[in-house]
Amino acid sequence: MTDLCFQLKGSVLTTVVLELHHFTEMEFRRQLEQKIEQAPQLLEQSPIVFNLDKYIGDPADIDPVALVQLCRELGLQPLGFRSCPALNGAIRNSGLAVLPASSVRGTPFAEGSSSTNSAGTSRTARDTEAGSGKQQAARVPGKLVTQPVRSGQQIYARDSDLIIMSQVSEGAEVLADGNIHVYGPLRGRALAGVQGDITARIFCHSLEAELLSVAGNFVLSEDMPEQLWQKPAQAWLDDDMLRVEPL
Asked: I need a surface site. Which of 68, 82, 205, 213 has the fewest CB within 10 A?
């Protein structure tokens, strides 16, 4: 019997969604360079998906090849485009994928402790009908983790809450379709409601996170309230804004 050369498996992939509103090369480059300077740990060498469903003007005027090349010059790794049937042929010619539209809700970048989604966190294989008012899928019992989550590890609680009894180290990533509870220092990334559940929350006993995200809306460490650093805190969506407040 011949050994299999490969196996195909589904996965949860953290990507950045760039929601394009309009495009002029010089201004786009300037603003993207600024975003990378603000969040290098999130954006440098990050996989990126272009979303054009809120583009102002005629998307046919966009040159996908030029857009992709510009992002690559700045260190991003484009994967594909969403929501632009008029450009499907040109997109395929660029070598990228044409992806289905996502309904994960987003918010524009804002300074301070509000959420960020001009480049929003997404799940390419897990996007669902978020914020549509439809009932979320039935949850299973929460996933319990009793050991520290080490740097480089990713823990995902599918269709459930995630409960971590120890610390989440810097460089680790914890994800859940429901809520996330961390009964120790949260130093890595925590992403709740990754299927789009806007009611999900993140709770931690010591806020030291690199990134918090609920249903694709995220806030970085530098934008979290200083008075909550290393204190018990929670994060949730309030009218499309990601709030980080005392627990």
From this structure: 205
Termini Cα distance of the chain = 58
Helices assigned H by DSSP within 22-162: 25-38, 40-43, 64-73, 88-93
Q: Which CATH architecture has domain 14-99?
A: 2-Layer Sandwich (3.30)
- Run of H or E including 112: none
With CA atoms as reference, report the closest residue to 78 among 68, 66, 92.
Answer: 68
Q: What sign has the CA pseudo-torsion 222, 223, 229, 233? A: negative
- Give the position of tokens 């439809």: 134
Domain ranges in the chain? 14-99, 133-246
Place of tokens 């740990």: 41
What per-residue string of b and e applies to 74-103 under the rule 16 or more CB within 10 Å gives b?
A: eebebbbbbbbeebeebbeebebeebeebe
Amino acid symbol at 47: P
Strand 201-207 relative to strand 77-82, pairing: unpaired
Least confident of 41-50, 73-82, 128-137, 163-172: 128-137
**What is the pTM for the complete model shown?**
0.59
Please count the residues of the chain: 247
| pLDDT (tens digit per residue) in 41-64 | 667 788 888 888 888 888 778 888
DSSP state of 177: S
